[in-house]
Write a structure and sequence with these properties.
Elements (H helix, E strand, L loop, with lengths): L8 H11 L6 H12 L6 H9 L3 H10 L11 E6 L2 H5 L2 H12 L12 E6 L11 E3 L2 E3 L4 H11 L3
Parallel strand pairs: 1-2
Antiparallel strand pairs: 1-3, 3-4
Cofactor: [2Fe-2S] cluster
Protein name: NAD-dependent formate dehydrogenase gamma subunit
Family: Belongs to the complex I 24 kDa subunit family.
């Protein structure tokens, strides 16, 4: 999974500089930082704010508003369970409850071994094959609890 580099202020400054001239640079900078480091490190907020002439509160507000931005590193695998209407109608809440039990982690949490981060999301765009789950960047449809177990078992370390 992308985003495994350890925090580096120098690298963060380079990423910020590389994206600073883009229109609406804040979001592209935040996405690039998360892509590289796996999260938006607290130390990045003042760097971004200073470079874009924004307050720290403005940058923090954007990071905390958008659910795709993380403040802590995710597990080695990110499991997203769709909770949108189509998936709900096909058992997504039961599937999410199963995922909580299987992984021993609530949405937004990472398993104790660091293998999985569980996220509840609203629409993966796979409504015709609901309920849908995305593991890392791979989308899966018609996921039953048994299929969920098989998919996550494939991703576990040997």
């Amino acid at each position: 999974m992308a985003g495994t580099a350890p925090w580096s202020e120098d690298r963060a400054r380079t990423i910020i500089a590389d994206h600073r001239s883009l229109r609406g640079a804040l979001l592209p900078i935040l996405h690039a930082l998360q892509e590289h480091f796996g999260c938006i490190d607290d130390a990045a907020v003042p760097l971004v704010a200073a470079e874009l002439n924004l307050s720290r509160a403005e940058v923090h507000g954007v990071v905390s508003f958008y659910h795709d931005f993380r403040r802590t590193r995710p597990g080695r695998h990110v499991v997203k369970v769709c909770r949108a209407e189509a998936c709900q109608s096909m058992g997504a809440e039961r599937l999410l409850d199963h995922a909580r039990r299987r992984l021993s982690a609530a949405p937004g949490e990472t398993t104790a071994d660091g293998a999985f981060t569980l996220e509840a999301v609203y629409c993966l765009g796979n409504c015709a094959l609901s309920p849908a789950v995305m593991i890392d960047d791979r989308l899966h449809g018609r996921v039953t609890p048994a299929r969920f177990d098989a998919l996550t078992r494939q991703e576990e370390p040997a």
